[in-house]
Structure prediction request, 71 residues.
Amino acid sequence: MERDPAIQKVVDKMSENMFGISQSEAQKENICVCCKTKVDPTKDFRNEISMREWFISNFCQQCQDKTFGVD
Prediction:
């Protein structure tokens, strides 16, 4: 998923302020922005919705569950 570069810049700045790492860097290295756990996007998610959320927020499954609850 590609974001408009201006929007991605804002998302990266917010992520750096909140988590100490930009969302772009976390996605490039496949690590969770929140807990810094290494993630395999092809295996580590419960369902399609969780995998799509990974590409939006770069939260691993465990951090998604803590943030949004378990469905």
